[in-house]
Each structure stands twice: as structure tokens, then as C-alpha cells.
Amino acid sequence: MKQEYVELFKSKCDDKNFEKLKNIENQKLHDFVAKYTKLCNPDSIFVRTDVDEDADYLRARALQIGEEKTLRTEGHTVHFDGYYDQARDKANTKYLLRPDEVLGSDIKSEDRQKGLKEVHGILENIMVGKQMYVCFFCLGPTNSEFSIPAVQITDSTYVAHSEGILYRRGYEEFRKRGNMDKFFRFVHSAGVIKDSVSCDVYNRRVYIDLEEEMVYSTNTQYAGNTVGLKKLAMRLAIKRASQEGWLTEHMFIMGVNGADDKRVTYFTGSFPSACGKTATAMLEGEKIIGDEIAYLRQVNGKIRAVNVERGIFGIIQDVSEESDPVIFKALTTPGEVIFSNVLIDPDNNPRWLGDGREKPESGINFAGNWGPGKTGPDDNEVLFSHKNARYTIKLKNLKNCDDNLENPEGVEVGGVIYGGRDSDTSVPVAQSFDWAHGILTQAAAIESETTAATLGAEGVRKFNLMANLDFLSIPIGRYIQNNLDIVEGAKKLPLVFHVNYFLKGNNEKYLNGMKDKHVWIKWMELRVHNETDAILTPIGYIPKYEELAILFKNILNKEYTKPQYEEQFKLRIPELLAKINRIKDIYQKKVFDTPHILIKTLDEQKQRLEECLKIYGDYVSPFVLEENQK
Ligand code: SPV
Ligand code: MN
User: Fold this and answer.
1) Would you say the CB of residue 273 lies under 6 angstroms from ligand 1?
2) Relative to the alpha carbon of 228, which ligand is closest?
3) Domain 313-397, what fold?
């Protein structure tokens, strides 16, 4: 270590923390920590290694300084984000690009020099009076070709504590790799804190420097903006994956048991925020590996995936004993859980929207003391718990956690699922003709009605290919091409499925129950093993009534009627055509590097639908299509 750094670090660290830094022999790391120590100017530095004692220190410190508070159940704590800091800040999240770099108009960017200057200005002396935490993690399982080491600097105990739950420890990985050059770096400061929350929202920035594989985040605490290893690392990993020929996806990974419980088939699934992604990965009786981000590689002719994380930062709205028994149990029994932006009732228990219990009358939430009719500083009504309230837990504390979570080789992917919030167009489940058809007509065409997971209006239909648009760090066309290329030369390809849990009838009521997704996934599992027939339609294969009726009976003990099936699975051709036109319009007008095959494939689908319309009319019963195939 340079003598200059020895003096600097010794002036901020006690002996133990100094040794921890010194014991990593990596010049680039020391340069990084030194630079931000000088710039941010904390009072002291704590270094998080892989020992439990360090994790315990951060949790205790969060309680000590008030960024978290204890709740009634042992191990449970609560953190509040500021009133205006309840979700990802898309407007202030930008890529720093050189003048000759272009990502496309859908991806926010800023001139690199200008952005670096601005954010370094904001960071100057930002940690005066605070402690700085230097934390080492590993994205993906350790000791794996998927592993990416990462270091986080933050002055937030909540961020450091959350990260410790969500990510694998990486200090030894850094020590082992010595003078490596490639690791992700994150600098975060919550900035000025009042009543334990960030309050300088005008200087909230999330700037991503792809060239240096580094992200800056200031004046925010909300995890989606601050926990470097989550959505910020995802952006860096998308770029790195593109350069190296693998994929970073906004996907869960789950194992689905076969009917005789002798086989497990792994699925990955991409859904925009708050569209049932975690609820799918958590289906009772199945196995979860991850609910959020996956790395995928082709290995020996097969597609394999790992969970980048080892925990869940999940939306807590509508989590009840009835709807999500596994999570509900974890959230109501002792164990390490951080709740954020829920209501704390007078008994010091957390309460959230749709928890299946009687509505609370009073408590404390992100807006202060709460009671019915409460309004916030912007005069909007404040619900007792925020719609984007979250919980943070370790996967291994769940009884359905799959043994392969830490498998350095990941799991073989049998099927890939794409979903969105769509009230009037797509059937509940369909299988694409093949990989390219799925990627181009389903994955690249995801639209979803917006939710509370990002700041801004809700319920607006937004294009969101692979549920990854918010995180793309490469041009859209390039990203689609990478998704096509990953299976090139593969011996066994995953099947591609599309689901829609949000289809509504004429009366605006959902056509499906929350649990029906379990039937769809068991159908997909059978399809992967070629054990069930399907109906060929212009958009792909859909299930047959008889098969679903059996699955509904076996899995949910429910009668599934022909009229229900017909209403859910009828092809809504005018809506399907309108969607193709919307998607084509985006790819032709807004995306500068659309692969030719995309338009061609959409046109073919359009033609099939138009022919179908000519024969059968606007709305086509699945029974009619089936009959015609005989
Ligand atoms: C999402 O919005 O997709 C999330 C939460 O998973 S966040 O970490 O905010 O991105
Ligand atoms: Mn997500």
C-alpha cells in the first residue's frame, strides 16, 4: 500500500479496520477507497469483511443511529425512506457517455465529463460527521465463472445492512484475486440526513459510468437507487455480458416439481416491477432460487442460470397468509428482516396494504404519525403503508429455498417466462413456436401498465422489453440480438412462454384468481417434457381445456369451467393487432438498431392474425381453433 494511503487510512481507521484494507493487495481498490475518503471526508471508516461480527456491527449501528428501528418480533427492523424517496428515480438515473457514444432515445444519458464533475461536486465533504462503510460482496455464487466481485462505499448503515442480507460476502474473493483489475465499484451517500432520512432530493443523482464500471448515487436511501449491487450493478453487468457473450436479465429463477415429484425443472421469468414476479417464484410447493436478477450463460450446449443475489427485496403489498403463505410466515416469525415504508402500529408490529388483517387505525409511517385521512406535504392522501413498501430477507431463511442457490454452476434452464400487466390483450399463458419467436414477439414486445415501483403516474401502458428497459446499458437492438445469440449452437433450448395474470373482463374484474399462475406453470413444466398437447394458434401454442381442468382440480382443487376457459383464452385479434402495430412503431421510429428479423417476425405474426380474423372474426374461441386442427 502506498505510504500516502497508510497515513490517510490510519487517520480514519482503527488498527483492525486498517488491517482489513491493507490485507487486500489490490492497488486499484486502494486508489478507489483513498480517492473517496479524501473527497467525501468521513470522520471514520469501517470495513466489512466476511465475518459475522462485521455484519452484526452494521445492523447494530443502523439501530444506534436510527436509520432502522427494532420491531416487536425478534430480528425484525424497520427503515423509512423520505416522503419523496419511495421508489427508483428514473428521471435522475443516467448513463455517463462520451460524445461519440449513443444508447438510443429511450435510455437516459448525460455527457460523461459534465456528469462526473457534477456528481463529484455533490460528493465533496458529503460524509463529514459520518462513518464511511467499505463493503465487499460477490455478485453470483462465489468461486464460479459467473462471480463478479464488487465493492460498495456508503455512509448509510441501512444500505450496508441490506446489502449484507441480499448479497454474498466478497472480502475473501477480493483477497484471493489479488491485483485483479475487473470489479464493480459503487459510491453512495445518503447526503444530508434529517430525522434519519435523506432530505436533499434536489441533489439526488444516480450516475452510471460504464467505462469505469462504477456507479455514483447521492441524496437518496431507497434501495433501488442506492444498493449498488442491485439495479446499479445490473446495468454494469448488462454491458459486461454483452462484451463477453452472456446475458444479465431481470429474471427470477425457480424450480418446478414434476407431477411425481421426481424431477425439478428450472424456469426463469422476466416481469416488470410489481407484476407478480416474486409471487410466481414463491409458489407454494415449488422451489425458489431467486426472484429478481439472473446471469445466463451457454455452458456445454445448455443454458444455465445463477441468481445474482441471495436475498429478496420484495414488494410487500398484498402479501397475506392466504396469497403468499411462505413469505407471510417469514415476515411474521423471528429472523432477520428489514421492513421499509410499512406502517408501525401501536404494538410495534409492521402493517402493510393487503396483509389480510383488519385495517389499522393509527401508527407511524414514512409520512410521520398516521391516521385515516392523512395527507402528505404535497396534499396527496397517504395510505397507511406505501404501495412500494418492501421487505429484505435472506432466501435461505425460506423453507422453499432450493439447494442449488449456491451452486457455482447454476441450474439448467428448461423454460423462460415473460409477463406484464395487460388488462385486455394477451391470453393467460402461451408458448412461443421457438426461441426466436418468443424473444421477438413476446420478450421484445412486453408492455406493462405502470405501478408504484417507480416515481410517476400509475396505470399507463409502457413498452418494457424483457422487463429490462430501465436497466439497459447497451442499445436496444444489440440487446435483442444478444438474446437471440445466446442459444446459438446450443444442443438444448429452453422453451419460451408468455403469461398475463392481469386480464380483465367487461366488468373490469380480473378473469383469473391470484393462484391460477400455479396451474399455468405446471402446464409449462409438462410442455418442457413434451407431456401435454396444445392448440396451435397464430401467436403460439395455448393449453387445451381438458388439460387445464385436470390441473385446476389437482393443484387448486377448483372446478374450471368451459366458459371460464373460453373467456380467458379467446384470441382478441383487434387488440393483438393493435399491440403489434404499437410495438412495430417503437422499433421502426425510436430504436436505431432494430434487428431486421424483428420486424419480419412481427409482420408474419400480423399476417397470421389477419388471416385468422378473416375466417373467424375478431374474437376467436380456443374451441374453434382446436376443432379446426383436427
Ligand atoms: C423493481 O422495481 O424491479 C425492483 C425494486 O425490484 S428496485 O430495487 O427498486 O428496482
Ligand atoms: Mn426488480
Assistant:
1) yes
2) 1
3) Phosphoenolpyruvate Carboxykinase; domain 2 (2.170.8)
